[in-house]
Each structure stands twice: as C-alpha cells, then as structure tokens.
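Notebook entry, structure prediction.
Reason for the run: the old model in the group folder had no record of what sequence produced it. Starting over properly, with the input documented here first.
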Amino acid sequence: MQLEVLQWNVWFKEDIDKVIGVIKELNPDIVCLQELTQGYHEQPRDNTWEHIKQELGYYGVHQTIPIITESDEWLQANAIFSRYPLRNPEEHWLHSPADLEDITDQFRGYLQADVEINGKKLTVGTTHMSFEEYEDDDENGEESQSHISFGQEDDGADPELSKLLNVTRRQLGRYILTGDLNATPDSKRVRALSNRFTHAGPSFAEKTWTTKAHITDLFEASTLDWRYDYVFTTDDITVTKARIVETDVSDHLPILVSFKLPD
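New structure, fully documented this time:
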C-alpha cells in the first residue's frame, strides 16, 4: 500500500489558507506541521490547527506550545493530520514551560499518534526543536562557529536531543519521525537520529530554509542555504520517493515522502 507523508513548518506568520491550498494540491495521506497558531494577531484565523482540520476533513491531534514575549502571549502548535483514524496521542516536552527562566526561553515539544490503516498501526511523531549549535570549516580548514545555539548548554550538551531519543526509544518498527530540527545534516542531532533511524530523503544536500528574509539581533538569513527539516523512518518502512516541494508559501519548504508499510 502506497502512502505519502508531508513534513512542513508552515511559519506562524503565513496566511493559513495558502498553506491549506498547498496541502490540498499535494493531497498527502498524513500531514505533520509546526508553527500553527492560536490567538496570534497577524493570523486572520484565530485557531489555525482547527481550521486546517475542518478544511481538510482529516483526523487531527495537536500539542500547544506557549509563546511569551515582552508584549504578547499566544500559542503555537505541532500537529498531525491524517485521512486515517488517529489513536493514542502522546505529548512530551523537550523544553518545558516548567523550565521557564526568562522571557527569551523557547518551549519545545514532541507529539506522536498511532495511525490506524486497514487494522494495522503506524506510529507517527513530529517535533520542532530549538536551534542547535554547530561548526563549519572556514576557508583555511579551521573550525569556526557558523550558527547560534538556542538548544545546547555551554558544555555542548543537547538536552532536547536526549529527551527526544528517550521518548522514541520504544519505536522499533512501523514508525515515522518528522520535524523541523533546526540543525544541519552534519550536526550531532541529525547524526544521532540517523544512527537510530533511516533518513527517508531527499539528499541532505537539498535545502529547506529560508525562502524569506529573517533579521534578528541574533542572526540574519535571507537565502535558501540551510537544511533544517527531515523525515526519518524505521528500517522496515520502504521509501519509494522523497522530494522537497517548491513553493513560496512559508519560510520553510515542505518535504513529501512516499512509502510502503511492511505486511
């Protein structure tokens, strides 16, 4: 049985009806999204995950993530939608609201659910992680820091990765993990997940971020130079095709993976 899963960080500022238009055109069986919103002042739809669920007519589960700034409070969400029934949803914190230290903290979570397909179970998990620090070689072959870290401690530890590996340790078969990992293919985070699961593709050389300019006090990016989005599977799942979808909707490009489940 051939199925398709879509991974996409839809960007909290993007017109959600444009996002829905792309999803309807692609028509995947399972959709994993990040940065859905509720109560965000720039979104014409107050609750974007409920709006998507209604417009697609899919089953859906979501995990809300609080966003707290000096001037505003609202919610983001990770979500899984499926044309097949979703069972046993689980939510896990990778960086919990209980860990709040200051207003700049970014809370992160992992969501999973069982997709019931012809009486059999496929478990799908999705996450949106903080930026991971990594280093690239400069022109002289010496290591130099190339991106800021939100996800690691000063000693190089990655507590979000440790928690993600822990909550997925039971997934030995019929499992798909998707997400915006905010880490490049050469990072500790992606290497660790590649060691545990099978990278579904497409090639790590293909980029997913950014299609829109981002300028903050911490970093600046305006071109499609980064790979932050991924799909992994257990090795019993056969991937038949994987591609990055070209679109000007969102700052991330979606990944669409076709696969077959084991008998």
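Summary: The helical segments are 16-26, 48-56, 159-167, 188-196.
The old model has been moved to the deprecated folder.
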